[in-house]
Amino acid sequence: MTGGKRRGWWRRNAWPLAACAVLLPAVFGIIGWAEWDDYFSGHESRPITAQPNASIDYAGASWGPAEIVELPPPEGYAPPAGSRILEVTVAVDPADDDPIGCLPPTLHEMGGAERQWDERTYELGEGYEPGEWNSCAGSGTEPFAIVVPFVVPDDAVGPFALHIVVAERVPEYLRLPLGP
Amino acid sequence: MAASQGDEPQQGGPRGPGEARQTVSTRRFRWLRAASDRVPTKWFAGIATGVFLAATAAFGGLATATEAGPVELEAGEEHLNEQLAITVQRAVLIDELSETGVTVEPGQRVLALVVDAENRWTEPLPTRRGYSLSSSIALADRPAEEPGGIARFDDSTWSPWLQPGVPMTAVLAWVVDDDDYADGDELRVVLNDESLYTGSFVTSGQSWDDPRPAAIVTVPIADVGAGADAEPQAEDGGER
Amino acid sequence: MKRWMPGVAGAALVVAAWGLSAVTPSETAAEEPFVVSANIGDRASGRNISVTFTDLRAAEAVTNDGWHADGSWLLVDLEVEALRSEEGTLLSFATLDVGGRSYRASERPPESLFGSQLAIDLPHSGSLAFELPATAFEASRAQSVLRLGLESDPRLDSLIELRFDLADLEVETEAELDPIVWVGR
Questions:
Q1: Three-point CA angle C97, C99, C100, nearest 5°
Q2: One domain, residues B144 and B118
Q3: Which of C27, C71, C107 faces B160 most closely, judged by CB atoms?
Q4: ipTM score of the complex?
Q5: CB within 8 Å: A115 and C117
């Protein structure tokens, strides 16, 4: 039981030990990476980001420019205390002959708490004049505009981005920065 | 572990002070050895088999025990198991019963059962396809077919949940061909008992599964045509 | 080796094994929900849900939007909001545990907060209704635990929990669920 004897064992097994030192982390690393990659490839994780006030190609269509305005409360609708209504309009041009399909867009806070809002077309009631489309479902092959209202708390001041997901293109999704 | 000398005094060894004690103990237990030598160890297997067979015979022998078949019940009689209390009240043949969520094609009608049910377990039970009432109640001549729709009798809530200890009257509906059943037919309804399974590994929680027939209820069918008042009328705001 | 040593070592190992099994967390411990306890009147917040319980009412009949039902009902009045995301954010989990049994918020009232969509930082007010056995209000003590969450499978997300005694509530003959109102703040 001397130090010399012990060093002898280490030295004798130097190559296997070195192999372990490389392979063990590699095994966990590869398995972990594969699991996370599997997860991320099933979720919206890769943004295709447009320049502000510009259009961009995604899923075989041209998207944007997108603009955001604050909307006065529509007639007959009392917005919840401490809130305001933001309306986003996105021009869409399906370049291919195939109509595109997308879910209603969501509004995202860039920075801060990174909150995300669902659109509220139906919440705003009869007094709200909705755009023709609040998603791409059934919109055909002609250029059209998606118009979606959001109800956000007063402390949400932006900047915002609009996210649009075409299911077949996940994990890629479209990210349209809005306004200032 | 190596046996030290002191562990086994019977083995003898160099004579010493322990000798006298050893002799005494040997003598004291000699009768035991004598008795054990006389035990017919070769017969052990035979004796054990005999005892086993005798014990089996006391419970009815080695033949497969005949399982008690389903109990025969009449309409209005309650069937109890660990999961549910079920009383089939009546059977109705009606042109349509969209309140329960079934739609009929031309040439089809709806066979509906009015059933009193109570959850006897400790957790709420859904009644949708594959659960509680849907998997516990079947028609004897189409045992694999779960009801196409189920609703509360009083306020026609679709696929209602059964809260523990809270009784409910439910309407279960099957879409049938219009010549399958007729007014006055005796309908045979199978009531199944299910077993409670506890999930492990990838599944979790507890669930009832593996329905087995436990009772058969005979109930006469009443044809109410398009259904005026006599049928399970379930409308919003309905009261018990 | 002393003769007594194996015995002592064996006993020590048995004690150690017992101790280890006693402190081992249960199989479900790794997926327990994160419980946030609440008091009536105070705002309690989890990951993506914030709840303010405003009142508890017991009644022998309830009404809601033209619907009526007799029975033993517990009404829970509350304000509830999301905190981070509105995507798929519904009040999908609402259970009441009392007397060894678990009840789920009733799906029967046409307009209850059960299953309703939440909004970020802008609370909705309304009620949840629990339908209980006829004898529920007769016990002299009925420790109850109310839990609210966003997923019908509550594991690994926040649950807002309110503990109270059902027997402390005065039973009204009839009560009405609060309408769902987006009150904001």
A1: 70
A2: yes
A3: C107
A4: 0.90
A5: no
